[in-house]
Write a sequence for this structure.
């Protein structure tokens, strides 16, 4: 049974790549895939975060739950996360989530013995696994401020003490926001901007200027030489229709034609630091694939073909 | 461009403005302790005891009161300070010893003074006796208080209670009134009267705050009656008798004085108050006295004395004229000491009354703030204490006299004997009485103390959040007696209260308009001047009189002036008729007085009220009424008629004078007044007309006014930062927000009142769109991830105090202690060896949290947690006063309360909503440009009908502010304030333009909208969405405290219906209206299910022969020999029922019925009524 194949071969072009930031183009696919990728990056790429806190001593001003909540939100380096097990399906420890395959133990001991306020930070957390440590935000160049201390957990005054044991586990952002590796993931449709040059030439320079300025972001500009309106940065366009409204108000309907390219997207990914932004994208694709595998029908279900028809073939990877 | 306010770097809690908010409470208490008590004691009438057998007499009186600062009880001589936080934790009262000397004066001998302990007197926090007095924020923190503690309240049994400010009629001002109830006094009375509430004054203008109201009624005959209350009864005297009794004056003299206000020449001209009828009435008044054949002063006095001797206490043996003098002194115009003054005032009141009758002047409105003042805590306590001390002396007299009569050995001359007898009347009960009125708010008094209500004088100052706490000190109540009134006239917002009472900050519903709040600039006059020294009213008045005579006032003494308005205006100074000023001069005099008021150098106090009522055509009764008295409302305005030097033109004005003043708004316009009345004053800032809480609403001038009122309500029920000193508190319930923020859009008051110390909410990114349908009807969708990251997280702190010494019977008090049972090992994980829980322990419902051991019975008992949610032990405090055994502990529990479906939130614009879903972050719409997802989604339908434009502005401004990294100033009425350079704010572009441009400059849409993409599909939403940060408050109403479910459970003993009450696991009433709805739907089966099957379903046996359901009973089965069939279970004999009355079981039937029906039958039977049930097959 041969059907029409809807298979497409999306292309990715990376524009910018930093540890915690990535910008890339995704072409030849549609919004569903782009959004699925976004959703997976935010909610389903696993990371490691503190999930269980046993407090031995807490004489700080913050109560136990508050401190536990703050600990949970500290991003931990989670390169291992993809290969780790979820505690709930860990066989080694019968699901109590305390074995090396599914958990990392942290210790924190801090006591203030001076009159100066002691900042307890993420640097004070001692990990049992050197690959899973609180994310280091200090400037690698180091000249910004030499004693960068990490994320403050609590401040202690003289005599106050905090002593605890924390277990970090693998999880996904769907369960709790602390496991989300993405600070922000967003995509926009690539805009397709066509200026009606003939109509544009009917405008005076002032009119052009005011039309160009009607956009809050700098999409258009006037060429200083030719005095023609040019598109300088199409991606700065926010689909706010300001220029179209302006053109309408000027009585020049159709001065510019802007449409969104339905099949190309520009992604911006910011990571919390738990995973590198590039890795985040790769992991997301991996997770997405796993999810699709889960719904893939087995090869020999004839009745499924009856049921789904062409769709069945498609889902089988046709 | 909106101004951006930088957060001032003011030291923590060093907030002067905040301290001023409760100043009036503290000042009045300080004055009471410093001077008030002494004045009061000195003016309590001594009691005289005489022993006829030995012919000795003893005079008892009090003097030299002294109140000590709060100290700890201790066996050793060295006392330690008792600090307020200790009282709160130990649930005791913050009190200091109250001592006074009782003077025993035997006839002709030297006075013997004995110190008496009058018990433990409650001390107001931050008053001069309080240990916190004068402490700066650092010291306060070291004393475990708030760094911005303002004081002004009492601590009684660990609870913080404030005295409610009550509206009183203005003291010493004769008010003309028309009231229907006056007609019912007696036959011949009309509805018109002039009423004056006189506050008692003694030599050198000292007062003890007790007041006596005198009413002058107009009779249909043309005469008048003077009414006053003695011991709960009103006495009415013909006014002529009083006039004659006060001064020796000829009838002609009285006649002339009464008629001087009428001059034919001026009749019907502007300002004329008299009419020709005045002469007739004067004649009638004089005739009345003549008819009683009273001609001279002496005769009149004798007449009064004769009639009043039975009711005057302690004057049984005095002459009639002495009794009459006592009546005149103690009940008539008690604010005046001089008979001439009283006479003049009475003449003035008669003239005002006649003018009211002749309609040449309008009645004064008793509901208007113009004629009102306020009852302060210090004054209330002084009045009450005076009566209690008088009672105590009277009782002392009685016990001594009883002793004299009974005991022959008793020697009145021996002070020790007398003292021993007096001890039967414990002196410590005095302070107890004061403590009780503060604890309960109830006055226990026979006379009523000239106060209109008996209960509701104090309220508990809840620290639900800081704004609520603060409002207790600014609230002014109209009086409990008005709450029940069906008329709404007392609740009206009158223009007279402009600037003094906030028009916005009043609750909606039952106390609406009765419970008002003072504006932020409004203050109450006190006995202390601005330097903190006690004012000398005698000197003040003398200098005012000096100034007035210097300006051309004709003095009234010794002779009353013989002309009246409109030629001259009468001058009353604190209710004393002092003279008259020619009406041509009056404007100059008033202007001069105001100038003196403002200038710092003059002796005229800055809070003098210059109540100049100008001549008018039948308006208010003209005159110049000057008030120096305390407990008046005052507020600052700028006097622009005075050439200004370095801002020295701030004048304090009162509500009485304000009505007749020309005050303009500082926007530079003339406010529409004509040129003939130029403005003399200017408001200092338009937001001064709002209360502190109302001042916190950003751009409230852009909102529909009811929304601002709702916000004032909701700000006070926000779950916020209630306290900084949370660790040292043992409040029954405290709400606490875990991660609050300061608003980006803020008014200038946030800095002025250090609101950042007590933030109330979170800046949430709010998108306005209809998404998923879960935001219908004021529901709102919260972003689940935002909540998980800590948005609006909070706790409730709840403290249980367990005092073994208090509970249970007296016998086993000492045998109980906190100790863990060694037998029950299961307890050991929850309870420590001392019988108390571990700190940090989670306790689930119905688990024990403390263990009490009884030594005698050798048993242990556990206290178990009630409620439905698990709690965490936050703190355990023990009282170590009792050295032997631990008797008293505070256990503080923490209920974590993170947002869930059903919790209530609101913005600062009266827009409240309930969380309907915690929506996954990925499903929320997102912005393509920034990737932002909203924290919260509200429905656009929340705006059109409510018109909370300021909320939209806030969203815009906060967006711009956060892009700029600066706070945005949102002080309302900014457009009507002059800037420093004298120009008003550039109003050429509107506020929206400013905000729009700010957004545009950062590359955002001018209107604050953004293109959002569906989080589910990734496609662009069809329209642009309004999105931006709005400050959201979490309200204290949470589902966890309110949900109620039940399937089956406890039923009422009598009716067998489900019980009510959430705590006891009861059901929700399916009431009449619900029943009606069911009937209307024809849902008969459901109705039957609710009202019968799920309620008191009962199967009754009915005797169809006699129709009774009560006479049935089970018949005892006689042992019948039943042959058991092997292998089968024994035959179950059917239960047999028989009717007692019919002695048969023939007609027995079973009928399903509600159990209450059977109960009804039983009740009726008890009344000897038989109920017959007729059964028939088929309906």
């Amino acid at each position: 049974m041969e059907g029409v194949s809807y298979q497409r071969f999306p292309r990715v072009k990376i524009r910018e790549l930093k540890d915690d930031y990535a910008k890339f183009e995704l072409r030849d696919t549609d919004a569903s895939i782009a959004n699925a990728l976004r959703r997976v990056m935010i909610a389903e790429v696993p990371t490691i975060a503190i999930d269980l806190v046993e407090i031995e001593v807490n004489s700080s001003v913050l109560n136990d739950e508050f401190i536990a909540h703050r600990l949970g939100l500290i991003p931990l380096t989670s390169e291992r996360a993809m290969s780790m097990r979820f505690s709930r399906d860990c066989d080694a420890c019968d699901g109590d989530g305390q074995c090396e395959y599914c958990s990392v133990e942290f210790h924190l001991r801090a006591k203030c013995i001076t009159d100066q306020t002691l900042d307890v930070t993420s640097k004070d957390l001692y990990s049992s696994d050197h690959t899973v440590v609180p994310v280091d935000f200090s400037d690698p160049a180091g000249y910004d401020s030499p004693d960068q201390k990490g994320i403050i957990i609590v401040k202690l005054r003289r005599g106050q003490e905090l002593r605890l044991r924390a277990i970090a586990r693998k999880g996904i952002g769907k369960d709790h926001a602390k496991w989300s590796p993405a600070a922000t993931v967003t995509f926009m449709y690539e805009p397709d901007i066509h200026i009606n040059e003939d109509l544009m030439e009917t405008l005076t320079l002032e009119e052009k200027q005011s039309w160009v300025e009607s956009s809050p972001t700098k999409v258009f500009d006037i060429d200083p030489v030719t005095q023609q309106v040019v598109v300088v940065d199409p991606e700065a366009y926010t689909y706010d229709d300001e220029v179209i409204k302006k053109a309408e108000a000027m009585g020049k309907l159709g001065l510019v034609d802007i449409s969104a390219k339905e099949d190309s997207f520009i992604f911006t990914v910011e990571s919390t630091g738990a995973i590198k932004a590039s890795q985040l994208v790769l992991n997301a694709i991996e997770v997405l694939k796993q999810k699709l595998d889960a719904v893939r029908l087995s090869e020999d279900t004839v009745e499924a073909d009856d049921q789904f028809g062409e769709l069945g073939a498609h889902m089988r990877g046709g | 461009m909106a101004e951006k306010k930088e957060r001032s770097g003011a030291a923590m809690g060093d907030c002067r403005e905040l301290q001023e908010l409760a100043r009036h409470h503290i000042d009045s208490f300080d004055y009471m302790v410093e001077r008030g008590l002494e004045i009061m004691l000195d003016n309590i009438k001594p009691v005289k005891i005489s022993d006829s057998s030995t012919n000795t007499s003893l005079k008892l009186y009090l003097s030299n009161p002294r109140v000590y600062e709060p100290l700890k009880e201790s066996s050793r001589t060295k006392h330690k300070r008792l600090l307020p936080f200790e009282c709160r934790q130990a649930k005791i009262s913050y009190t200091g010893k109250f001592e006074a000397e009782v003077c025993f004066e035997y006839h002709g001998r030297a006075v013997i003074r004995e110190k008496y302990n009058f018990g433990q007197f409650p001390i107001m926090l931050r008053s001069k006796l309080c240990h916190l007095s004068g402490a700066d924020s650092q010291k306060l923190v070291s004393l475990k208080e708030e760094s911005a503690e303002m004081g002004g309240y009492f601590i009684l049994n660990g609870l913080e209670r404030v005295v409610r400010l009550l509206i009183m009629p203005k003291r010493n001002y004769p008010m003309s009134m028309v009231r229907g109830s006056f007609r019912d006094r007696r036959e011949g009375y009309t509805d018109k009267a002039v009423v004056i509430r006189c506050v008692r004054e003694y030599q050198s203008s000292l007062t003890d705050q007790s007041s006596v109201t005198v009413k002058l009624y107009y009779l249909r005959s043309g005469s008048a009656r003077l009414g006053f209350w003695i011991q709960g009864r009103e006495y009415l005297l013909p006014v002529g008798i009083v006039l004659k009794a006060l001064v020796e004056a000829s009838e002609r003299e009285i006649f002339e004085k009464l008629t001087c206000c009428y001059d034919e020449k001026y009749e019907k001209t502007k300002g004329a108050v008299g009419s020709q009828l005045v002469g007739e009435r004067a004649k009638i008044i004089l005739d009345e006295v003549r008819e009683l054949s009273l001609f001279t002063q002496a005769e009149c006095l004798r007449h009064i004395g004769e009639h009043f001797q039975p009711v005057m206490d302690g004057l049984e043996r005095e002459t009639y004229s002495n009794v009459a003098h006592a009546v005149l002194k103690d009940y008539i115009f008690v604010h005046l000491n001089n008979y001439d003054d009283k006479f003049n005032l009475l003449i003035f009141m008669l003239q005002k009354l006649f003018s009211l009758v002749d309609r040449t002047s309008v009645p004064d409105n008793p509901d208007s703030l113009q004629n009102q003042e306020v009852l302060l805590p210090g004054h209330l306590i002084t009045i009450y204490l005076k009566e209690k001390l008088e009672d105590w002396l009277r009782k002392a007299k009685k016990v001594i006299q009883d002793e004299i009569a009974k005991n022959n050995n008793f020697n009145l001359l021996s002070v020790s004997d007398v003292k021993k007898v007096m001890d039967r009347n414990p002196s410590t009960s005095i302070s107890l009485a004061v403590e009780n009125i503060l604890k309960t708010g109830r006055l226990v008094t026979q006379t009523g103390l000239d106060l209109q209500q008996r209960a509701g004088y104090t309220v508990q100052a809840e620290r639900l959040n800081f704004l609520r706490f603060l409002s207790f000190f600014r609230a002014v109540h109209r009086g409990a007696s008005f709450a029940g009134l069906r008329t709404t006239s007392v609740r009206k917002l009158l223009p007279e209260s402009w600037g003094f009472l906030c028009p916005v900050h009043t609750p909606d519903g039952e106390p609406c308009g009765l419970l008002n709040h003072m504006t932020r600039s409004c203050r109450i006059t006190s006995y202390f001047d601005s330097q903190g020294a006690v004012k000398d009213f005698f000197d003040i008045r003398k200098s005012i009189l000096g100034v007035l005579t210097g300006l051309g006032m004709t003095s009234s003494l010794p002779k009353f002036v013989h002309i009246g308005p409109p030629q001259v205006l009468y001058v009353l100074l604190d209710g004393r008729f002092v003279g008259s000023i020619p009406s041509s001069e009056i404007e100059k005099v008033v202007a001069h007085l105001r100038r003196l008021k403002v200038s710092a150098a003059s002796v005229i106090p800055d809070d003098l009220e210059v109540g100049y009522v100008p001549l008018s055509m039948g308006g208010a009764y003209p005159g110049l009424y000057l008030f120096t008295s305390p407990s008046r409302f005052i507020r600052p305005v700028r006097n622009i008629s005075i050439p200004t030097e370095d801002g020295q033109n701030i004048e304090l004005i009162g509500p009485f004078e304000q009505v007749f003043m020309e005050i303009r708004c500082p926007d530079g316009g003339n406010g529409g007044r004509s040129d003939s009345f130029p403005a003399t004053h200017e408001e200092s800032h338009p937001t001064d007309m709002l209360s502190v809480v109302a001042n916190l609403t950003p751009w409230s001038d852009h909102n529909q006014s009811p929304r601002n009122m709702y916000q004032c309500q909701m700000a006070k029920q926000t779950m916020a930062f209630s306290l900084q000193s949370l660790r040292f508190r043992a409040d029954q319930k405290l709400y606490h927000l875990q991660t609050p923020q300061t608003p980006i859009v803020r008014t200038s008051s946030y800095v002025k009142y250090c609101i950042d110390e007590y933030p109330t909410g979170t800046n949430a990114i709010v998108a306005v769109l209809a998404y998923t349908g879960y935001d219908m009807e004021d529901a709102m969708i919260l972003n689940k991830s935002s909540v998980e990251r800590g948005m609006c997280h909070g706790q409730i702190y709840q403290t249980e105090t367990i005092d073994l010494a208090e509970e249970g019977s007296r016998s086993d008090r000492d045998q109980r202690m906190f100790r863990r049972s060694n037998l029950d090992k299961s307890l050991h994980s929850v309870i420590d060896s001392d019988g108390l829980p571990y700190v940090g322990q989670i306790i689930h419902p119905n688990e024990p949290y403390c263990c009490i051991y009884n030594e005698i019975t050798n048993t242990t008992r556990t206290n178990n947690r009630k409620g439905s949610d698990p709690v965490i032990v936050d703190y355990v405090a023990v009282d170590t006063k009792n050295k032997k055994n631990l008797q008293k502990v505070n256990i503080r529990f923490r209920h974590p309360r993170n947002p869930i479906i059903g919790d209530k939130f609101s913005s600062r614009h009266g827009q409240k909503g309930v969380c309907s879903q915690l929506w996954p972050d990925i499903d929320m719409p997102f912005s393509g440009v920034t990737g932002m997802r909203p924290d919260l989604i509200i429905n656009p339908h929340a705006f059109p009908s409510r018109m909370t434009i300021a909320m939209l502005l806030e969203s815009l401004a906060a967006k711009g502010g956060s892009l700029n990294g600066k706070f945005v100033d949102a002080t309302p009425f900014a457009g009507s304030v002059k800037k420093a350079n004298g120009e008003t704010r550039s109003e050429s572009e509107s506020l929206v333009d400013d905000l729009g441009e700010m957004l545009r400059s950062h590359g955002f849409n001018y209107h604050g909208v953004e293109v959002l993409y569906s989080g589910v599909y990734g496609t662009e939403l069809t329209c642009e969405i309004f999105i931006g940060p709005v400050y959201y408050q979490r309200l204290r109403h949470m589902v966890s405290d309110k949900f109620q479910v039940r399937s089956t459970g406890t039923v009422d003993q009598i009716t067998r219906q489900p019980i009510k009450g959430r705590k006891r696991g009861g059901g929700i009433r399916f009431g009449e209206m619900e029943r009606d709805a069911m009937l209307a739907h024809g849902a008969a089966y459901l109705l039957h299910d609710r009202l019968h099957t799920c309620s008191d379903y009962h199967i009754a046996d009915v005797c169809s022969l006699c129709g009774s359901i009560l006479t049935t009973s089970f018949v005892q089965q006689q042992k019948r020999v039943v042959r058991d069939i092997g292998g089968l279970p024994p035959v179950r004999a059917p239960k047999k029922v028989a009717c007692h009355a019919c002695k048969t079981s023939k007609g027995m039937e079973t009928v399903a019925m509600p159990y209450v029906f059977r109960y009804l039958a039983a009740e009726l039977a008890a009344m000897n009524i038989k109920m017959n049930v007729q059964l028939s097959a088929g309906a």
Q: What stands out?
A: The CA atoms of residues 37 and 284 of chain A lie 6 Å apart.
